Amino acid sequence: MSGNLSHRPPILRRPAGIGGALPALILISLFFVVPVVALLLRSVTEPVPGLQNYAILFGDGTYARVFLNTFLVATVVTAVTVIVAFPVAWMLAIMPPAFGSIVFGIIILSMWTNLLTRTYAWMVLLQRTGVVNRTLMDIGLISQPLPLINNLTGVTIGMVYIMLPFMILPLVGTLRAIDPMTLRAAALCGASPFDAFRRILLPLSLPGIAAGGLMVFVMSLGYFVTPTLLGGTSNMMLAGMIAQMIQSLLNWGLGSAAAFILLLVTMALYALQLRLVGAKRMTGGI
Amino acid sequence: MKLILTGLLAGLLAVTAAHADEMVFTSWGGTTQEAQTKSWAAPFEASSGIKVLQDGPTDYGKLKAMVEGGSVAWDVVDVEMDFAIKAAKDGLLEPIDFNVVPKADLDPRFTTDHAVGSFYYSFVLAWNKGAVPGEPTGWADMFDLTKFPGKRTFYKWSAPGVIEIALLADGVPADKLYPLDLDRAFKKLDTIKPEIVWWDSGAQSQQLIASGEAAFGQLWNGRVFALEQDGADVGASWNQNMTAADVLVIPKGSKNKASAMKFLATATSPKSQAMFAKASGYAPINTAAKAEMPADVVKSLPDAYVDGQIDLDMNYWAENRDKIAERWYAWQAK
Fold first, then answer.
1. Which residues lie below 8 Å from residue B96, measured CB to CB, with a gap of 6+?
2. What is the pLDDT at residue B88?
3. Is the model's pLDDT at B155 over the cut of 80?
4. What range defines the domain where residue B300 resides?
5. Are residues B292 and B329 in the same domain?
6. A150 and which of A25, A73, A221, A232 could share a cystine (Cβ 3.0–4.6 Å)?
7. Residues B326 and B292 grouped into a single domain
8. Domains in chain A, CATH or no CATH each
9. How close, in Å, is residue B255 to chain A by CA atoms?
């Protein structure tokens, strides 16, 4: 294959330089690298030079709780997303392509709908006087409205819904690559459907679960809109805390330090993902 | 992320900043800003030929970003008075040119070197009549879970109001509120914390009460007024109503300072203030405005409920803003 490359017309050859990528690189350095450096500088210079902002963040019980809470929410959301997404992905993988593309369309369409609109819709559904509680009370299942909003339940429901496509898409890629014959072979050898799932399907789909799971986890860590609208003040996550430091407390040094920590954690997780799954599989799986 | 966004936003806004014959007015959105647009911006545009662009909601972080970044896109901003006092001290505001803005009739309580009053308001106790058994009569009822069960809503941000309410409910006499006993206030608030739903914008406070999502809460009187005008089934108690003020400021480095000063002159004039009071239910900060207002409007304003009224201490708050905010948000996150 590589030997034939030189015989192709020039347009099909891999470009030798990075000339074509230059606009994107300039854009990223201007609007990402420069602000990140500015952020880092602010975190160690405001209000006075030194590491005091980091000392405050690590030394204060309140901030520790917010950090913990952020990881808790991201973990719960990732776990629930995997459980909900797996059957959908499996169905998509084995469905006839015609049906599959319709279901895909629905999933993609939900991704394209405005995030705020979707989150407000959940508010309308989940609040005490909302559709869910009204219906459950009307049919007599509950006598008091369930607390579905302004708490971890609300955040989890809202975020799982938003994260589902990011889990389903990589998972479908992995599941499609599994030869269905392996499952049939397992059945022929006497494996129950559950055994076939546990010992064949699940291990084979692990790369997809890891890729999707890490993506969902990382995205959840920095989420702002949904936790703010569907969570209570005691479910505050890092992004919400940063916004508060910047907007309400006007303490930009502290806010920058918190944002930088979030960025570091995200990068570390991304590095982990690269090691575990491999960059090729991760980007090619979708 | 947010910081980057703030920076980017400031940059983007600078590109779209107003031209010479335009200026930008920023307020809190909803029914209040609609009333300001109608009562202040429209007549100002007609008389001056300067177009007033509306932006919002007010965001103190954004304001600071604009001033420090040198790309100020807002020319007049409606802010809470304790913030204005602090912001002036931090050098974020232009001094007001009282040669352009007539000062004589402005209520001195809400006039400083760097700010003129916008309107003043009271925090009142409002409730959804369908969701509350009986009638709450004062702040102490908001802490009585047996007599008044259900969710109660308070202002989310660290600002004058909730701390004072907790202390009053705990039996602190109105004239002994300051300096605020924060330990006592938070201890009192702890007793109802699981039942609190926070509102972070006036529109949300209206939605919470009107839908019954919260049975009752601490609301700006103008927002209750608007609900009543809409025919919502709400009640309100003015017992120990607490006054605070919004003021109008010009961020330092405003590119349309001259227009902004003229706008302030119009916005604070007796006629504009009377119009706004009629539309919003908030009280005018121009003492000559009352003569321009119908009697029934005068009767519905905070001025008509001075009996037992408490003035929130803006200077105390400006002084202690950061210290209280830190504890406030830490307590909320618990």
1. B113, B114, B115, B116, B250, B261, B264
2. 96
3. yes
4. 2-120+245-304
5. no
6. A232
7. no
8. 1-45 (no CATH), 52-284 (1.10.3720.10)
9. 23
